[in-house]
Design goal:
197 residues; alpha/beta; Dihydrofolate Reductase, subunit A; ten-stranded mixed beta sheet; two-stranded antiparallel ribbon; 5 helices; 32% strand; globular; dihydrofolate reductase activity; one-carbon metabolism; DHFR-like_dom_sf; NADP; EC 1.5.1.3
Length: 197
């Protein structure tokens, strides 16, 4: 069981762009996607045997059907559409309800994986303590944005970028350091933590 803690996990451009036309604006970041899968699947010993992924309906629908639900994790889908079913996922109507659903299961960690409205609602909650950011350094045109600007300076509106050692310790692996590049897209792994309660 988690202790009411949420971690947001997101890939975003320097302007905090996260999507275009309902999909990711970049493609072919296989190592980045593998990082996402490893981090969100890794459960802490002795706590629970799985993690939870909290997402909005559009994020759920953007996952190709053959990959839904995202395996080896509890999938929780937030929607205001009554009667929606998410085969293999639990359906809730708010972030608060999603947190309650997480608390009723034996999970280690809860990750919020999008989209923008769900991120915004999660950022307003005291349970949100951490953001795992893949900072996409290449420029992409986006129409959807993460609702918090995380500046290159490392400090931003009650948030602070942590060291690589802190990131490694929290995710449980040696995260690749510095700028990574796949298919011409450059990016860097970061972890941010809330500085005020």
């Amino acid at each position: 069981m988690i202790s009411q803690e949420l971690t947001l996990i997101v890939a975003a451009t320097g302007k905090m762009g996260i999507g275009r036309g309902g999909t990711l604006p970049w493609t072919g970041l296989k190592r980045e996607m593998a990082y996402f899968a490893r981090v969100t699947k890794r459960a802490s010993p002795g706590v629970g045997n799985t993690n939870a992924l909290i997402m909005g309906r559009k994020t759920w629908e953007s996952i190709p059907p053959k990959f839904r639900p995202l395996k080896d994790r509890t999938n929780i889908v937030i929607t205001r559409t009554s009667g929606l079913t998410a085969q293999g996922g639990n359906v809730t109507s708010s972030v608060e309800e999603a947190i309650e659903a997480v608390e009723k299961t034996e999970v280690t960690r809860a990750f919020v994986i999008g989209g923008a409205q769900i991120y915004k609602a999660a950022l307003e909650r005291k349970e949100t303590k951490r953001i795992l950011l893949t900072r996409v350094l290449s420029d992409f045109e986006c129409d959807t944005f993460f609702p918090l600007q995380l500046d290159e300076s490392g400090k931003s509106e009650g948030w602070e970028r942590k060291s690589k050692e802190d990131l490694d310790r929290w995710v449980g692996e040696q995260v690749p350091e510095g700028v990574q590049e796949e298919n011409g897209t450059k990016y860097r792994f970061e972890m941010w933590e809330k500085t005020e309660s």
